């Protein structure tokens, strides 16, 4: 996916989870943060960030904060932190045959049971029909070359995994895909230190036949696109 007009800025403060104060073009602007997670290790005073200028003059904020540069001993790491981007990136990748086939139908935001999954898909070929669900999780937490999810407890994430298991038992194909919004990671794993229940639910889902996939992305200030799979350590 490609963003529109991108500008660099300097992060100053985050008074609440929706708003960040950023210095951009010599002025302090209130910017919409497109990630309601904590991101405490990323949004530090003085951090270099990138903003997308919105096209709606009626908006309360002129810019969206979409990326940040994390300072590490091994060198800076550019991280896309737009929580809406992983679904778009996965949709583009899957529609283009990334799953090994081009779905006949790929529909976002589809309800099943007590959840709303990110994608429902169907494939009809040669008289054979397949159908299934994918749930997509964006990963922005990096620790020593490992990408970990989640960065904060997520009861909703656990529920999604449990519902994927039920869908699998009902005859659907089912999978969870971790979109890693940064480059150069060695592997992806559940963040058991932060939310052990999510890790346990992910392992149960995998044993029940739910596919677990991780995809590394190429990241530029104004672009995010899938590069290829990453190992998942359960």
End-to-end Cα distance, whole Å, is: 29 Å
Biggest sheet overview: 6 strands, mixed
The SSE order reads EEEEEEHEEEEEHEEHEE
Strand order of the largest sheet: 7-8-9-12-14-15
Percent of residues in beta strands: over 45%
Number of DSSP strands? Answer: 15
Stretches where pLDDT is under 50 for at least 5 consecutive residues are: none
The secondary-structure class comes to: alpha+beta
- Percent range for helical residues? 10-25%
- Summed up, the helix count is 3
* Average pLDDT number: 95
The radius of gyration is: 18 Å
The shape is globular
Give a description of the structure.
With 234 residues, this protein is α+β, with helices and mostly antiparallel strands. It contains 3 helices and 15 strands. It has helices at residues 85-95, 155-169, 196-207, and strands at residues 6-16, 19-24, 27-33, 48-53, 63-70, 77-80, 105-112, 115-125, 128-139, 141-143, 146-149, 173-180, 187-190, 211-220, 223-229. Strands 7-8-9-12-14-15 form a 6-stranded mixed β-sheet, with helices on both faces. A 5-stranded mixed barrel has the order 1-2-3-5-4. The chain is globular. The model has no long low-confidence stretch (mean pLDDT 95).
Which features does this protein show?
234 residues, alpha+beta, 6-stranded mixed beta sheet, 5-stranded mixed beta barrel, 3 helices, 15 strands, globular
Q: What does this entry show, briefly?
A:
With 234 residues, this protein is of the alpha+beta class. Helix content is 16%, strand content 47%. It has three helices and 15 strands.
